[in-house]
Amino acid sequence: MNNNYKRLLLFIKPYVPRLGMAVVCIIMAAAANLYVPWIIKDLIDKVLAQKDMMTLNLLGIGIIVVFFFRGIFYYGQTYLVSYVAERVIIDIREVLYKKFQEFQLAYYEKQQTGTIMSYITNDVAALQAALVNSLIDMVTELSIFIGSVCMMFYLDWKLALVTIIVVPLIGKAMKIFGRKLKDNGAIVQERTADITSLLQETISAVRVIKSFVREDYEIERFQKQNYLNFKANMKGVQLMSLLTPTVEFLAAVIVTLILWFGGYQVVHGSLTAGSLVAFLTYAVNLSNPVKRISRVFGSIQAAMAAADRVFSVLDTKEKIKDKENAIVLPEITGKVEFKHVGFSYNPGRAVITDLSLKAAPGQVIAIVGPSGAGKTTIVNLIPRFYDVTEGAVCIDDMDVRDVKISSLREQIGIVPQETMLFSDTIMHNIRYGRLDATDEEVITAAKAANAHNFILELRNGYETQIGERGVTLSGGQRQRIAIARAILKNPRILILDEATSALDTESEELVQEALDKLMVGRTSFVIAHRLSTILQADNIIVMENGKMVESGTHRELLGKNGLYSHLYNIQFNDKKSRQV
Ligand SMILES: Nc1ncnc2c1ncn2[C@@H]1O[C@H](COP(=O)(O)OP(=O)(O)OP(=O)(O)O)[C@@H](O)[C@H]1O
Fold first, then answer.
1. Cβ-count burial of 160 within 10 angstroms (0-12 exposed, 13-18 middle, 19+ buried)?
2. Residues above pLDDT 70, as percent of the chain
3. Among 4, 29, 191, 412, fewest CB within 10 Å belongs to which?
4. Cα 387 to averaged position of ligand 1 atoms, centre (Å)
5. For the segment 461-483, what is each residue's pLDDT rounded down to a tens digit?
């Protein structure tokens, strides 16, 4: 906790000069407030009691000058504090985002998207509010508090002492509330994150919800979460609204004490009436800062709960990262070798066992097997989305763990089953494969991917916006854009997860043709569902329960009459007479 305060301060450190100026402005603006009771004192004791015109004139000029400068300092404090707070927030958000980009797949599989989003939105927003609003209030009120105390001692030290003895009571109350508010702040943030997660999940699963007619079920689920959020928020409101009256009551007790002791001294002539009124005004001044600081304290506690969450993300250790002496992988030929590879996502449950295989440059390796056999896992080991738990994966005889991850992934192209396109133009989506590609190169890639023609038919051609605010493309079209993207990247190794969902025959042919072109000259690992891929593969790996049970070409495997031949018969029975 303390540590996180320090870490927040580290984010503020680069802006200390501006913050220093801001604090000066805040103190100067606050000092103007301290001038007011002094005016009242002089007004009562000199102007009213002694009919002193000179003092009245001076007071008039003083008020105008002081409040003119107060305005200037007020502007300075608001501008400078907001500047620093906004910068700090931008920095934190950026560091968080970098961390998220650094995380490997394993992190995202364990976290819900909504939760991750809420770190960058809700938690950072809570920090932002605390920094902007609290900093000004805190320094202003603290200055007024300290200034008022000094003035009170100056006016009557005995009376001031009585007042000060009772003040810790307020501090105690604030502490109790502060702790409760912090705990509740954490719960509120969690509940909000739960709602965001639920929303995210249900929006992306809308097809599933509709097809199972689970709208009412989802509404009920949402209502429950929403109610929990309401309860947590109301708990916070309850605490906040109890805090103010408690502090105010304690302040009233203090004012009564001053009134009695002060009045006693005026009656006996040891204190002037003006001094007592000024003293009282300072005392009331004192209660304002206490009240506001207590509120600021509450929001800082809530912000610290957010900071705890933000820093816990920053502290998450990434297991898959470059070794200290990792080398840049030179341009590869595309030789891939699995050497007695074993892998498990969770200790004790092997998903891949003792897998050895070799792929010469340019070969096509088809991976087949029943669902859950470990096909996706195998291909994920090549770009180091996960690290092997036993053995090694080597590319051009170099262990993938010995080379820089970026230099490894730059030479591997992946065409996933579900094509992910960004809400951007088609041109940008293809160029994602190589950011410095020219328009001509993008178009050449699109032509090779059989995408050029359909792109030209769209109203804005390559500048057509895809996604939520743009056109919706068919599955086959999306795949061809993904293929164009991979062609542009021109990787030596290709990983292809063939879509299982059926495309119409024409689209299927166009996609297949594009894939065939893409595979030429590249070492390709294909999680194969299409017969044509399987037939052209140099080697077919048959997986079952994480083990390679057979391997060879189509004809060799059919001859073995094992799992492959069984899978082949059930999957392609109807097609084989046409295609073989
Ligand atoms: N992130 C993960 N964490 C834990 N276990 C996982 C994870 N991903 C996959 N598994 C498990 O590992 C095993 C192999 O999964 P994998 O996705 O590699 O199989 P697959 O052959 O590609 O299956 P499919 O054809 O259904 O995609 C399965 O038992 C699966 O439940």
1. buried
2. 95
3. 4
4. 15
5. 999 888 765 667 888 888 889 88
Tell me if 110 CB under 6 Å of ligand 1.
Answer: no
Span 428-437, pLDDT tens digits: 989 988 888 9
The ligand 1 atom nearest the CA atom of 378:
18
Percentage of residues of the chain with pLDDT beyond 90: 24
For the domain 419-490, what is the CATH code?
A: 3.40.50.300
Q: Which residue's CA is the closest to the ligand 1 atom numbered 7? A: 345
Record: fold of 2-315: ABC transporter transmembrane region fold (1.20.1560)
The total number of residues written for the chain in this structure: 580
Whole-angstrom distance, CA of residue 484 vs CA of residue 518: 9
Q: Which of 111, 344, 346, 351 to mutate to test the pocket of ligand 1 (most atoms within 8 A of CB)?
A: 351
Q: Where in the chain is the domain with CATH 1.20.1560.10?
A: 2-315
**What distance in Å separates the CA atoms of residue 552 and residue 557, rounded to the nearest whole number?**
6
Distance 385 CA to ligand 1 centre (A): 14
**CA torsion, points 431, 533, 505, 509, in degrees to nearest 10?**
50
Nearest protein CA to atom 3 of ligand 1, as residue: 345
Q: How far apart are CA 501 and CA 437, in angstroms?
A: 32
Q: What is the mean pLDDT of the chain?
A: 85
Maximum distance among all Cα pairs of the chain, rounded to whole angstroms:
121
Torsion of CA 550, 551, 553, 555, to 10 degrees: -20
SS (H, E, C) 405-455: HHHHHCCEEEECCCCCCCCCEHHHHHHCCCCCCCHHHHHHHHHHCCCHHHH
From-to residues of CATH 3.40.50.300 in the chain: 419-490
Give the confidence band of 159 by pLDDT, cuts at 50, 70, 90: confident
